[in-house]
Specification:
This protein has 151 residues and is mainly α. The protein has a two-stranded antiparallel ribbon with strand order 1-2. The longest helix has 20 residues.
Length: 151
């Protein structure tokens, strides 16, 4: 844990705690063990503005999904949203594009904490997709331009 991560955790402990709401804007907040662990990781490693962005992403995504009558797994959506920008944090920054770096860290964290590989892979794809390069990094896929003279 970096010194910034430790400082954020200390600052959070100093703030008075209040009971978390069970819903926000009609969206039930996910409260599973893995969701609580993911929330703690995001809070401990992210600046406050980035953590808040990730939390809003879940709420807006769930609102849009509900308004569109989509069926979705709230826990998977929550995990993908709350962890989707880990690659922008000091702790998880690395040589890959931040989307891929964060997706890799997210999948490792989730599988280490008991989420099945299949579900962790779904979260990986969601976290990585915002960059558009996920296929190249996940599958070593190199897109080729089609020869316009080929028949």
């Amino acid at each position: 844990m970096s010194s910034q991560d430790s400082q954020r955790k200390i600052e959070r402990v100093k703030k008075p705690t209040t009971q978390r709401p069970k819903t926000v804007a009609g969206i039930a907040l996910v409260d599973s063990k893995i969701a609580r662990l993911a929330t703690e990781l995001a809070r401990d490693t992210s600046p406050e503005y980035l953590f808040n962005h990730a939390a809003r992403t879940f709420l807006f995504g769930a609102l849009i999904g509900n308004a569109s009558s989509l069926k979705f797994d709230s826990e998977i959506l929550y995990l993908a949203c709350i962890l989707h920008d880990l690659g922008l944090t000091e702790r998880f920054a690395g040589p890959l594009p931040f989307e891929i770096q964060g997706a890799q860290a997210t999948r490792a964290f989730l599988t280490e904490n008991g989420l099945p590989n299949g579900q962790a892979n779904v979260v990986w794809v969601i976290a990585a997709r915002k960059g558009g390069n996920e296929l190249r990094y996940q599958f070593n896929y190199q897109p080729r331009l089609q020869d316009k003279n080929a028949k």
